[in-house]
Every structure is written in C-alpha cells, then in structure tokens.
Amino acid sequence: MHTTGYTVERLMREDGLEGAIRGQRRRTTIPEPSAPRPPDLVNRHFAAHRPNPLCGSPT
Predict the structure, then answer these.
(1) What is the pLDDT of residue 55?
(2) 9 CB neighbour count, 10 Å cutoff
(3) Phi, psi of 8 (to 5 degrees)
C-alpha cells in the first residue's frame, strides 16, 4: 500500500501516536538544586600535582 507522509502524519495525530525521536538524548533525571549533596566518603582529591601530567610511561 502506498500513502503519502502527510496522510500517515494526520492519521497518527488523530490516534494520538508519536513516532520515534532519533538522534536526540532525553534527560531522564533532573537533580533538585536545593537537595543536599552526599558526603565524599573516599576523600578524593582531583587536583593535579603538576600541569599536564602524563598517565603511564611513554613507549
């Protein structure tokens, strides 16, 4: 069966259907700005000891 895109769009809109959205990320979790942040139980420090350090030895 051959139909035009507009016909399919109109029929889907009448039935309340939506097509798949591709290529866009949906944000599922939105953090509450006033919520307290969990404590850093590991005491991580993300500061570099010197500028531009290399990870591992160059080979």
Answers:
(1) 67
(2) 12
(3) -65, -45
